[in-house]
Amino acid sequence: MSGPDAETKMQFVYHLRARGVTDTRVLAAMEEIDRGQFVRGIFAGRAYEDMPLPIACGQTISQPSVVGLMTQALKLTGRDKVLEIGTGSGYQAAVLSKLARRVYTLDRHARLVREAQAVFDGLNLVNITAMTADGSRGLEEQAPFDRIIVTAAAEDPPGPLLAQLKIGGIMVVPVGQSDTVQTLIRVRRSETGYEYDEIRPVRFVPLLEGLGRDG
Ligand code: SAH
Questions:
Q1: What is the mean pLDDT of the chain?
Q2: What are the transmembrane regions (predicted)?
Q3: CATH of the domain at 141
Q4: Of 151, 5, 188, 154, which Cα lies nearest the Cα of 64?
Q5: Spacing, Cα 86 to ligand 1 middle (Å)
Q6: Which of 11, 66, 126, 131 is 20 to 30 A from 90 via CA?
Q7: Within 10 A of 24 (CB to CB), how many other CB atoms are there?
Q8: How confident is the model over 114-171, as pLDDT tens digits?
Q9: Would residue 181 count as lying in a domain?
Q10: Which of 63, 98, 107, 175 gets mutated to test ligand 1 (max ligand atoms within 8 A of its CB)?
Q11: What is the pLDDT of residues 51-94, one digit of tens each?
């Protein structure tokens, strides 16, 4: 499948910069991964607009500038073992895969995991493992993680995820009690505890418990 033309890509990167995505490695990864591969049907032509778009199972692919800012906030080193909660389309995981050693991504909808896996295979992104699971429990068998990114909003950072973060590790998670007002926060784990800082207001679909019923 052919990607976007050079002009579209240039505009995309220019806009990401204007929205505060300044890390050149993050910009390079986002230039490399074609968002058009992760959007289907009538919205496919809008993949290079800075908007969230509908995907299967009533979910959304995040806005590119938010993907960029979250990825940047993780401060990846290239050697990281990353856990993502909320595979969705797989776009965020694909961007992470270019900047980290290994990415585990979980979604509660089996269909989304299946479809994302097919895109990862097509792009030969072999360092991503996608699994159907309730991500609010994390992924005990692969813990601890250098980085954790949650792409669905919780009231508070889930306890199992805090516990599965390495000392020295970073987690990025949208938190908030309502569907409309949430804050993206960064959690750093040190020897003595957890430090929190706020990044910006965001709006994500909710982190729900249990598995989806789509089969
Ligand atoms: N990162 C995605 C966007 C995620 S949308 C992308 O790049 O396209 C949020 C996703 O979180 C949805 O697919 C939803 O099914 C998933 N989700 C919500 N609660 C979850 C949970 N407890 N465990 C795993 N996934 C969850």
A1: 95
A2: none
A3: 3.40.50.150
A4: 151
A5: 3
A6: 11
A7: 9
A8: 999 999 999 999 999 999 999 999 999 999 999 999 999 999 999 999 999 999 999 9
A9: yes
A10: 107
A11: 999 999 999 999 999 999 999 999 999 999 999 999 999 999 99
Q: Can you give the residue range of the structural domain that contains 101?
A: 6-202
Largest Cα separation within the chain, whole Å, is: 50
Phi, psi of 15 (to 5 degrees): -65, -40
Does residue 62 carry a catalytic annotation? yes
Burial of 207 (0-12, 13-18, 19+ CB in 10 A): buried
d(CA 187, CA 166): 11
**How many beta carbons lie within 10 A of that of residue 121, not counting itself?**
11
Contacts of 26 (CB under 8 A, 6+ apart): 68, 71, 72, 95, 99
Handedness of CA 204, 14, 46, 215 (dihedral sign): negative
Pairing of strands 81-85, 145-150: parallel
Distance between Cα 170 and ligand 1 center (Å): 19
Strand partners, 102: 81
Supply 85's token pair.
């909660």
Q: Is residue 207 assigned to a domain?
A: no
210 inside domain? no
Structural domain includes residue 148: yes
Q: Which residues contact 182 (CB under 8 A, 6 or more apart)?
A: 153, 174, 175, 176, 201, 202, 203, 204
